[in-house]
Amino acid sequence: MSRTVPARQRPTIVRRTWRTAFAAFALLAVAWSLAMPADGTTDERQHLERAYGAVTGRLAGPQGEDPLVHRPGAAFEVPKSLLPPNALCVYFPNVHQDQSWVARPASCQHPAPSTHAKTRVVSWVGRYNPLYYLAVGGPLRFWPDMTGIVLSRTLAALLASAFAATAAAIAIRTRRPMLLAALLTVLTPTTIALNSTVNPNGIEISAALLLWVCLVDLARPGPAGRRLSPVPAAERGCGARLSRVGVLRQATIGADSEDRRSLGGLLRRVTSAVPVVQAGPADRRSPAGLLRRAAFALAPAGPGASPSQPALLLFAAVSGAVVLTVRAEGPFWFALAVAGSLAVAEPGRIRELLRWRAARRVAAAWAVTAVLAVVWNAVSGNDKVTETLIAVHPADHRVGTLLRVVAVTRVGGWFSEAFALDVQASWVPMLWAALAAAVLVPVAVLRTRRVAVVALAVAAASLGITVVLEIKFLGTLGWSQYGRYFLPGLAGTAVLLASGPAGELPPVLRRRIPRLFALGAAFCQLWVLAVEMTRVQAGPDAPLNPLGGSWHPAAGSPTVLAVAALGAAALIALVWAATADTAATADTTATAATADTTATATAAVPAAVPAAATALAAPQAVPEPANS
Q: What's the half-sphere exposure (Cβ side, CA atoms, 13 Å) at 199?
């Protein structure tokens, strides 16, 4: 028998689920934030300088040239206390630079001057869209030192983790444990490390993950996720008021058809989707009340039920705007997500979305955001790159030759970097890839041909754009592309393959496969962090020992490991709880078929029986989402 959760308890359950997911991702990312020295992760120095310039009013500095590799960028005046003068000594040198450079422990960094006197720097990301840097760089304005860096890292980690947690909460709320496991395949140690640093690549991946989940569920909604229509007055009793479905129906009755399709009507229905017995007028106006109503919009209305379409559209609107703006490739990843979702849409669903005024307004907002993002890149000069010292000029410039070189020397490194950034342990990416295959292959064989083809096309497009950009910038930036760049696209492949209903697989697989991945992912996350801590504390050639070395983070290495262990434990607990009721879900699926039969018989009740009585007596079974 399936458990029936009272409507009054559903907001508490969904808040607890979201908080657990948020805690898991945030704790893992915050551990990285505490563990790394200044400029300890890829290109962080450039992004920190850009962030300080943005929060102090320099949204676009004057054109300049980076003295290290002569790469064009923007010049800023930053305090000398912001970074050590030789911050790069801890990072791996580029093979085309001075061969005498050898990566060393972070103890090689000279102490940053305590003075706030300004010095001129040139950041090659200085022309990036400033919105992300304005969101995370605030602490640098008040603490332009390592304290501000750690606080900005933590703020970036919290923002990115919120997107990842919302995507995970949708998967759990719709009883799709395989989708939850598929989302975790994209949240690799590299993604968590990027979430923890001042670098827009991390939030781009996490926001793209949520965007794909929302768009696919909007394009292929289950019956419980469709927009609800008014119900007769006889069916609007106390029982209807105590269910989210009944409340949404009542909220819809009071509005005309145009208001139900408008963005204002969308927001009113999302914020009003809460039983009147739960909050008074004053509470409904408070920030806490708003948060409770937002959580209630995701609360389960029944086994297998989908989140409300207005809630999905709202999450898609926010995550889509983030993907469009944080990096120059954002419009491409956004267009790929929209195209991939529409390619698998149910028949007639696109026409239905176009008739929805709220969807049209969100699409218009996206179009304006995309135009502004492209205009910024063109006007700021972010799309103009001149030849640098790391340019590569092969003797044979034929495309076929370049493709062979990229395939032989670059693609393998891209996938290794996508799973474990900077970690010289080939078995870690291989283990992660094996775990990902264990999740995605079983669900891939169950997909329709159309969905499988679209998923493969999204993967090919993600890898293809990376190859194109590698060849395009070879003569100016050298080998400039990395595996972390195509993770926003691979997120779409994972979501498309795993977004079907949970009932397609036997309950034992729906329970064991996600749990296996959770255990393996938690281990890989901790292992990669330990290897990175060893690198910065004792050097890249030192034996694994995250507690040793000549340098230690200000919080202490044991504290960092404890925070990461809590995050890994929360991740395992999240997946365990999400898969605990798979058997109950299977029973509920069977019960749904019986309920359909009962509903058919109820339809034959003589007219003398009140409709309200039959509505309350009949079991209310909600079918699973038709996302296969």
A: 23
pLDDT of residue 92: 53
171 and 141 in one domain? Answer: no
The predicted structure's pLDDT at residue 12: 52
Give the residue from 236, 118, 213, 233 showing the smallest Cα distance to 163: 213
What span, in angstroms and rounded, lies between the C-alpha atoms of 77 and 19? 40
Dihedral of alpha carbons 205, 210, 212, 213, sign: positive
Cα separation of 107 and 100, whole Å?
18
pLDDT tens digits for range 435-479: 999 999 988 888 889 999 999 999 999 999 999 998 888 888 888
CA-CA-CA-CA torsion for 489, 490, 491, 492, nearest 10 degrees?
A: 70
Rounded Cα gap, residues 207 and 68, in angstroms: 32
Count of structural domains within the chain: 2
Q: What is the pTM of this model?
A: 0.81
Alpha-carbon gap, residue 588 to 540, rounded angstroms: 53
The pLDDT value recorded for residue 382 is: 74
Regarding whether 197 and 90 lie in a shared domain, the answer is no
Longest alpha-carbon distance in the chain: 93
Would residue 598 count as lying in a domain?
no
Q: What share of the chain in percent tops pLDDT 70?
A: 73
Q: Judge if 526 and 415 occupy the same domain.
A: yes
